[in-house]
Amino acid sequence: ETGVTQSPTHLIKTRGQQVTLRCSSQSGHNTVSWYQQALGQGPQFIFQYYREEENGRGNFPPRFSGLQFPNYSSELNVNALELDDSALYLCASSFGTSGNEQFFGPGTRLTVL
Amino acid sequence: KQEVTQIPAALSVPEGENLVLNCSFTDSAIYNLQWFRQDPGKGLTSLLLIQSSQREQTSGRLNASLDKSSGRSTLYIAASQPGDSATYLCAVSMTTDSWGKLQFGAGTQVVVTP
Fold first, then answer.
1. With an 8 Å Cβ cutoff, are A55 and B99 in contact?
2. Of A32, A35, A79, B51, which has the maximum CB count within 10 A?
3. Cis status, amide bond into A8, omega within 30 of 0
4. Lowest mean per-residue pLDDT among A25-39, A95-109, B50-64, B83-97
5. What is the tens place of the pLDDT at every residue in B25-46?
6. Nearest to B43 by CA among A1, A48, A89
7. Nearest chain A alpha carbon to B96
8. pLDDT (tens digit, 9 = 90+) per residue, B2-31?
9. Is the peptide bond before A61 cis (omega within 30 degrees of 0)?
């Protein structure tokens, strides 16, 4: 059984650019949630995708968007990057939505200069 | 609004000592509570998940308790080892939230010295 994978591992961008982060779910999971973790803080929920539809969203602006594909892999897109977007981005997969155990990937470290 | 707090923010213990990590939450309408381990710059490894109807969960040297009415969970790690050095995070999901989003504390950074 393959766990949750994310790519790339690290990424450096400049302010104003756009970035795409990718996540491959654990086998059998149909739900992906994305989190942003700033240095020294706990992860903050960005949004969740369930069966290719956005199922819920945290307190993040519309320039954070996502996609989920038929194979349940997912992308997080961030437009017009700001310095404060520098963080570790984590995706988590689960089967179903409310209250089911979430399994996290290794994360993508994004640095915005 | 749910707030999850972990105290202390950092903890250093000698090898062999038992670790006690605390997590508190303000809204008791939780669906479950999950403990994670995070190594520097890495993702989260799930340690234990406690459903709201449970009082505790155990896995090896780890034991987590849950007191929903008082809004507290405690993670016990017996006979700590240097390999236990990491940041430990707790997170809750709410019954009022159909998405099952996790709300995290800021974590407790643990150092176990040989």
1. yes
2. A32
3. yes
4. A95-109
5. 999 999 899 999 999 888 999 9
6. A89
7. A98
8. 999 999 999 999 999 999 999 999 999 998
9. no
Residue whose pair of structure tokens reads 């006979």 in the numeric block: B79
- The tokens describing A28, both together, are 């059998």
pLDDT tens-digit profile of B63-92? 999 999 999 999 999 999 999 999 999 999
Which residues in chain B touch residue A48, judged by CB atoms under 8 angstroms apart?
99-101
Q: Is B106 on the interface with A (CB under 8 A)?
A: yes
**Token couple for A108:** 């993508």
Inter-residue contact B41 to A88 (CB < 8 Å): yes
B101:A99 CB<8 A: no
What's at B41, amino acid-wise? G
Query: Could you give the CA distance from residue B21 to residue B35 in angstroms, rounded to a whole number?
Result: 10
Residues in chain A: 113
Q: Distance between CA A35 and CA B36 in Å, rounded?
A: 14
Instruction: Mention every residue, 6+ apart, whose C-beta is less than 8 A from residue B28.
Output: B68, B69, B71
